[in-house]
Design a protein that fits this description.
Blueprint: H1 6-17, H2 19-36, H3 43-67, H4 76-94, H5 104-131, H6 136-155, E1 160-161, H7 165-172, E2 174-175, E3 178-179, H8 180-198, H9 200-210, H10 212-217, H11 222-248, E4 250-251, H12 259-269, H13 281-300, H14 305-339
Antiparallel strand pairs: 1-4, 2-3
Helix pairs in contact: 2-13, 3-8, 3-11, 3-12, 3-13, 4-5, 4-6, 4-11, 5-6, 5-11, 7-11, 8-9, 9-11, 12-13, 12-14
């Protein structure tokens, strides 16, 4: 008699958990194909989607990590821009012939400095939230505003461009026909999933989000976990910055500001609880694919970009209303069962 292995059981549970997202994914793909015809499934459009998806995907996973404790990281976009600006300034300062001619050693040093800046932002966010008990939304709103201002000061409002090929290849290159940015996103998603589901840090983070008091009694250091959480979130901002640099060949203080809403939407659509304690990387990845399909389909229809932004807001409201009604219906059904 055949028995299921634990791996099979976990895979089956993941599919069941995300069943509604698979249904939405198929429905959205069919709708966009119906509205755009063959243009939607042409290789050029599919390749374009593969290059665009990693930016939102990396931001969404970074946002998800901050939401697992019931918080939010509003500074994630500003942190990504800070990372790129620091890399650009380091290359400008130390490359004798300009950024384009920077050596591999200098590029690595600049990337490490940018990453350290992101880590510092995560540490500051985590300490302010955990030690001073300031709400996440206020702390990250403050650091977002501070970093955005510093970004403008550092760049003097200009766009910095002309990166070396080693950096451009991350966002704009391909390996074996697959965009490097997509490979980076897949690897980062797998690593994040393993860390969140297989490590003590991940277990403690979920526990802290679902029941902080229980986590405290279980000798979980809430300060340590919160700092690690926001450093982990900022690391995804750094990865996003590398992809953006490669695709745009430039950095600016205000790049990707509109992606903050999309990152929150992707996490929310991917079944990450805004109250903390629940959410899977697999759900967020599916949500990002769904949003990318919608975005590409609407762009092919030449819809106004501001209307597309309004569409994201409408989707958030629809999800909130649907989940609220579903929650109320579930409560009523449970009350009826108890009374009977």
């Amino acid at each position: 008699m055949k028995t299921h292995t634990p791996a099979r059981l976990r895979f089956s549970a993941m599919v069941t958990e995300n069943l509604s997202l698979y249904v939405v994914l198929i429905a959205v793909f069919a709708l966009m194909f119906f509205m755009n015809g063959e243009r939607f499934i042409r290789s050029q459009n599919l390749i374009s989607m593969a290059y665009q998806l990693p930016i939102v995907g990396l931001l969404a996973i970074g946002m998800m990590i901050s939401m697992l404790s019931g918080g939010i990281n509003l500074s994630i976009i500003a942190t990504a821009n800070l990372n790129g600006i620091i890399i650009a300034l380091c290359l400008q300062q130390f490359a004798a012939g300009g950024m384009k001619t920077a050596s591999s050693e200098l590029v690595i040093m600049a990337v490490l400095l940018g990453f350290l800046a992101c880590v510092l932002v995560g540490v500051v966010n985590g300490l302010l939230i955990s030690l001073l008990k300031i709400p996440d939304i206020l702390v990250t709103l403050g650091t977002m505003t501070l970093i955005a201002g510093l970004n403008v000061v550092f760049t003097k409002g200009y766009t910095l461009s002309g990166f070396p090929d080693a950096l451009l290849n991350i966002g704009n290159g391909a390996s074996f026909g697959v965009p490097n940015a997509l490979i980076l996103f897949i690897v980062a998603a797998i690593v994040a999933s393993v860390i969140l589901n297989k490590t003590r840090f991940g277990f403690s983070l979920y526990m802290m989000g679902s029941n902080p008091e229980a986590a405290r009694y279980a000798n979980v250091s809430l300060v340590k976990i919160t700092v690690m959480q926001y450093v982990f979130s900022s690391a995804f901002a750094a990865l996003t910055s590398l992809v953006m640099m490669g695709q745009l060949n430039s950095v600016k203080a205000s790049y990707a500001d509109s992606y903050l809403l999309v990152a929150v939407l992707a996490a929310f659509l991917g079944k990450v609880s805004p109250f903390g304690g629940f959410g899977r990387v697999s759900g967020v990845v599916l949500a990002v694919i769904i949003l990318q399909i919608i975005s590409s389909g609407l762009n092919l229809m030449r819809m106004d970009p501001f209307m597309i932004t309004a569409t994201w807001g409408a989707i958030i409201i629809a999800i909130v209303v649907f989940r609220g009604l579903f929650s109320q219906l579930k409560i009523r059904l449970n009350n009826r069962e108890k009374s009977s």
